[in-house]
Amino acid sequence: MTRLSVIGTGYLGTTHAACMASLGHEVAAFDVDAERIKALSSGNLPFYEPGLAELLRAGLETGKLKFVTDLSEAMSGSNIHFLCVGTPQADKTGKSDLSQIEQAISSMVHFLKPGDTIVGKSTVPVGTAKTIREFLEINFQSEVKLVWNPEFLREGLAVKDTLHPDRIVLGVKNKEDSKVIEQVYQATIKEGTPVIVTDFATAELVKSAANAFLATKISFINAFSDLCDSVGADITTLADAIGYDSRIGRKFLNAGIGFGGGCLPKDIRSLKSRADELGLSAQFKFLDEVDEINQTRRTKVLQLAIEQLGNISNKQIAILGASFKPNSDDIRDSPALTIATELHKLGAKVKVHDPVAIPAVNRYFPELGTSLTIEEAFEDADLILHLTEWTEYQAIDPIHLRNLVKSPLIIDGRNVLEPASWVSAGWKIIYLGKPSS
Ligand code: UGA
Prior knowledge:
Bound molecules: uridine-5'-diphosphate-glucuronic acid
Number of helices: 20
Strand content: 5-15%
Radius of gyration: 23 Å
Structural class: alpha/beta
């Protein structure tokens, strides 16, 4: 087993550190955020991710995993350093803010030793790894190696995606540089996971292309969703039918209020901005459309609410779901919260419910009303908006809740609620891209 350091304990770094410890490696994870390190050291996960808290605590108990604020302590016992810091959107151009990468590398330089390997996992614009490699060469000749190993984990499934990924991509300058990392991932590779060893630029672009393709698939189906609305067709049946074509596939063809979160929106903008820099604006213009179609999904729900209620002011609206997707408490660029905020601005009395994200909503959206139970959210409501498809909401008893609301009207922004039980309980249910019931 190997000793590893992990630099950055955000979503990616914490998951990676705990998963690597679960494979038997000795992991020291570093962050500049002392409060976060304190929480993690006591076994408290600062975000919600199914299965991860158990791995975190197991790693701490066995002593395989530790969290430190001293970079020298993190790096000294190890030759492999995973770079897992954030690369948020810098500005309106969509460019990535690489300051955390720059800061991490310039701090790491003091503690790198000949024979060390830095493994970049952060999502970066193409060309970043080459720049880091050149910087390392100036400081260490070729004695410190760089491998670019993009991460494909999905929030809510982060543990499974880290331990059993669809593929492992390793960008290197020299083919043999990948060997040391293949050793770290030995258990996963033994399961038959494909390993793609390639150059830096290809590795970086695999990540950008994967997220751009997923975002495009969602906006594609959402454009068709509007077309279905115009002609009375059914987007779910359409998605099922085209999804049977194995060249197309059914995944990521769920129409609704579109994509959010800390990755797809920023990654398509970063890719477009990088393509612009490289003189390829025309070829990547479609990403602007993907982004715009996606934003319009949020406006569409507002329009539907106005169509149904007329004047929104003082109307009581229950919002089911605040996180950008189920099984996560991440509210970054959450479509549900954009809609809730706009309704609030129009004078609606909004009550947001979410199984896990309410503390985050109270902290970052104090203007929004919140409810700790589904019943409380439904009380006296003129309209229910189902915006994040937690399984809890699909198990709701519409008969019981019918008696709590002022008006039995629900818009299903994720197209997953079964119409039969709602309609027979006296509700009107409106979908995006398929006929209302
Ligand atoms: C995404 C990618 O799926 C991961 O492979 C990648 O590693 C990650 O970004 C990243 O770059 O770190 P994630 O942001 O966790 O993962 O979420 P997704 O499961 O991709 O969902 C993104 C959004 O798309 C959610 O808001 C979801 O509700 C929406 N979505 C997804 C749809 O609207 N329709 C669908 O059919 C699928």
